[in-house]
Design a protein that fits this description.
By secondary structure, this protein is of the alpha/beta class. It is built from eleven helices and seven strands.
Length: 300
């Protein structure tokens, strides 16, 4: 989610001295992303734009939101200012026609698709008695179906790319019953995204398309969290979205493979990837007071 004005200033300061030093570039590559108007998605897109990437954003926010800063159009302006090219499209990843239109527009504008980033996701941590079935359906439709659909429709272009990659923001498949017991509906939706990674990595292993998931080790500072009761305190125990942006960049450029490993079928954490890319100190990603205990993310 987009940062507030104060958080944006904090993020700019963080970017000035981040420890990750890229060994590869996304220059000229075309990325299509679900969501991305703000937050982690926009941070990932902005990092790619700094390389000179082409980025297609399919997001619902065409008009300003009363509580959340940024639209798909202001996000595109930020990407262009960072050095990339951007194609903002207002659409819903739940709608087959919108997704097909976005994929076609990416191919028409930029000649193909090299990377799919499944970023759009809905969250409701209610227990089973309390969860509204409309919210259940929303999470299944955005998280699972949307991830499957965007990946599916981009497959011909990814196969033709020569360095196709699908990166989904979803957790490792941790079958400890703790997580299903805490919030079953959300857990099923997020694990559905991760199962898409597992299955497509196997299905596409001979097609030259890499498929991976990425998940943060700690709470990430977003406007959604800041707008929650007590959110201003919570983000003091969070890292900035730049850590996920740098980790995604490392995965997509292969910088994390210097220490070995296979490039597909992985459920990475941001720390794991950045350590493999040479980062030893993560303190510069923290926006709160130095030494403040960080809140671990769920599913780990």
């Amino acid at each position: 989610m987009t940062q507030s004005n104060d958080a944006s200033s904090d993020s700019a300061a963080v970017q000035a001295h981040l420890p990750y030093r890229a060994k590869g570039s996304l220059k000229g590559r075309t990325i299509i992303m679900s969501g991305g108007s703000r937050g982690i998605g926009l941070a990932i897109a902005t990092r790619a734009a700094r390389d000179g990437a082409n980025i297609v954003l399919l997001a619902k926010t065409g008009e300003p939101h009363p509580k959340l800063e940024g639209t798909v159009f202001t996000a595109a302006e930020q990407l262009v200012a960072a050095g990339g090219q951007a194609l903002p499209l207002v659409g819903d990843v739940r709608n087959d026609d919108d997704v097909a239109r976005a994929v076609s527009a990416a191919v028409e504008r930029f000649g193909g698709i090299d990377v799919v980033i499944n970023n759009a996701s809905a969250i409701d941590l209610s227990k089973t008695d309390a969860v509204d079935m409309k919210r259940y359906d929303l999470m299944q439709d955005i998280n699972v179906r949307g991830t499957f659909l965007l990946s599916k429709l981009a497959l011909p272009s990814l196969r033709a790319s020569g360095h196709g990659h699908i990166l989904t923001l979803s957790p490792p498949l941790n079958l400890d019953p703790k997580w299903a017991g805490m919030h079953l509906a959300y857990t099923m939706a997020k694990y559905g995204m991760s199962l898409t990674t597992l299955g497509l990595a196997e299905e596409l292993k001979d097609d030259g398309v890499q498929v991976n998931s990425l998940w943060p080790c700690t709470l990430i500072d977003t406007a959604a969290i800041r707008n929650m009761p007590g959110g201003q305190q919570m983000v003091k125990a969070a890292r900035g979205p730049e850590i996920m942006a740098d980790a995604a960049h490392a995965v997509l450029t292969g910088a994390h493979l210097a220490a070995g490993g296979t490039g597909t079928g992985n459920f990475y954490t941001d720390e794991e990837v950045l350590r493999a890319a040479g980062v030893e100190d993560f303190s510069d990603y923290v926006l709160g007071a130095p030494g403040h205990p960080l809140v671990p993310d769920i599913f780990l």
